[in-house]
């Protein structure tokens, strides 16, 4: 057998990114972002298998070695450690098959698909807040459409989006329960929807400022405060609040802001970065806020972390304005339609909206960066009150941009 215990506890923090063997099939994978996971490589019946043993932050070197030895013992018995772990999980679920237990297990199984392994808990929160307080202790096999209907009825017409998410999560939980071998009704959520009927909730759009009024509001942001500067950059770039609030000095590359995929709205777990062209005015705002940076973040809060999602909205509320910060994306999009001849694909890309079918996006290898740069420079001129003329979009549309 190959040598065991190659790694030293004291040297693990200093190991470079990559895969590091401890011997006997136990490996530590350190990622570029600083995270690290233990995994086990075994060969069972001539088939090579890899089994995760947990994050380094949760599992010590000693614990990983104990888990690895258990895996090797199972292999010596001719058993597949991964299948054995799955069997044990199924048995545990049958022994404690309340809706809460199965829901938590389903959440654990989906974490790899969620941003940052689902640490924010947003996927689970609709269940935690609106379903589990009433049904969490009920065996999942006993939960029926009537139970679901009575549980979600209080929010079905008042918090329609939350109720929809809770229902969708429940459907996933029931499928997970069925995969565990539990006798559940996979149609219970559809039946509950039929009992609840169509939601009467009428969604309202966020109030947006007319693009012609944006220059006056921009001019009113005259104080060099974090909030004023954040609102200025939000208006100039047309980005969402989250990537702006978490803007780090490392995200700025000359005249371009590169938003990491994990900060972009879209598919959870997305790793695709998005480039935002920075106008001269945007770069000026960034230079003004740079001296206030803390830990590299350009918009820190007063105490710790970054400014909250409500910080900019409160400024507009105090001014008794009906509009909200997110509405400036609509202002920009309307300006693109009414004051420029930017093609729809380019205009939608300004707001980081996906356009076309999946096949079209696969073949389109451009993010129209230079076309957007010209548009955003012109938007900045409008916002700062320097011009209101029609923008002629003269760049050729068939230029491949990589």
Question: What does this protein structure show overall?
Answer:
Belongs to the 'phage' integrase family. Keywords: DNA integration, DNA recombination, DNA-binding. Pfam families: Arm-DNA-bind_3 (PF13356), Phage_int_M (PF22022), Phage_integrase (PF00589). This is Integrase. It is a single chain. The protein contains 17 helices and seven strands. It is an alpha+beta fold. It has three domains: 78 residues, 2-Layer Sandwich (Double Stranded RNA Binding Domain); 101 residues, Tyrosine recombinase, N-terminal domain (DNA polymerase, domain 1); 170 residues, Intergrase catalytic core (hpI Integrase, Chain A), CATH 1.10.443. The strands form two sheets. The protein has a four-stranded antiparallel sheet with strand order 1-2-3-4, with helices on one face. The protein has a three-stranded antiparallel sheet with strand order 5-6-7. A hairpin with a 2-residue loop joins strand 5 and strand 6. Helix 10 runs antiparallel to helix 12. The C terminus is likely disordered.
């Amino acid at each position: 057998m190959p040598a065991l215990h190659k790694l030293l506890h004291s040297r693990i923090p200093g190991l470079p990114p990559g895969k590091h063997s401890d011997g006997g099939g136990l490996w530590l994978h350190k990622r570029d972002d600083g995270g690290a996971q233990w995994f086990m490589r075994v060969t069972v019946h001539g088939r090579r298998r890899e089994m995760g043993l947990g994050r380094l932050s949760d599992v010590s070197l000693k614990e990983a070695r104990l888990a690895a030895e258990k895996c090797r013992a199972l292999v010596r018995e001719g058993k597949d450690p991964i299948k054995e772990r799955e069997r044990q999980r199924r048995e545990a679920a049958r022994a404690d098959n309340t809706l809460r237990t199965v829901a938590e297990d389903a959440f654990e199984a989906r974490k790899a698909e969620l941003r940052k392994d689902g640490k924010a808990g947003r996927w689970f929160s609709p269940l935690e807040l609106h379903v589990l307080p009433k049904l969490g202790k009920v065996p999942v096999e006993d939960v029926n459409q009537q139970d679901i209907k009575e549980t979600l009825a209080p929010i079905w017409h008042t918090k329609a989006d939350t109720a929809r998410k809770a229902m969708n999560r429940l459907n996933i939980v029931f499928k997970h329960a069925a995969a565990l071998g539990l006798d559940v009704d996979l149609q219970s959520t559809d039946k509950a929807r039929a009992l609840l009927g169509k939601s009467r909730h009428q969604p309202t759009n966020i109030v947006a400022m007319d693009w012609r009024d944006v220059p006056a509001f921009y001019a009113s942001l005259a104080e060099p405060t974090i909030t004023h500067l954040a609102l200025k950059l939000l208006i100039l770039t047309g980005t969402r609040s989250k990537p702006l609030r978490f803007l780090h000095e490392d995200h700025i590359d000359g005249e371009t802001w590169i938003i990491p995929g994990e900060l972009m709205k879209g598919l959870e777990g997305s790793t695709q970065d998005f480039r935002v062209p920075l106008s001269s005015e945007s770069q000026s705002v960034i230079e003004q806020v740079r001296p206030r940076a803390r830990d590299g973040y350009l918009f820190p809060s007063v105490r710790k972390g970054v400014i909250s999602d409500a910080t900019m909205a409160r400024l507009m509320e105090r001014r008794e304005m009906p509009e909200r910060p997110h509405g400036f994306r609509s202002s920009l999009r309307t300006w693109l339609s009414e004051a420029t001849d930017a093609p729809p694909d380019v205009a939608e890309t300004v707001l980081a909206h996906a356009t076309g079918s999946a096949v079209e996006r696969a073949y389109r290898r451009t993010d129209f960066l230079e076309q957007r740069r010209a548009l955003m420079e012109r938007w900045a001129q409008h916002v700062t009150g320097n011009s209101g003329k029609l923008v002629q979009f003269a760049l050729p549309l068939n230029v491949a941009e990589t």
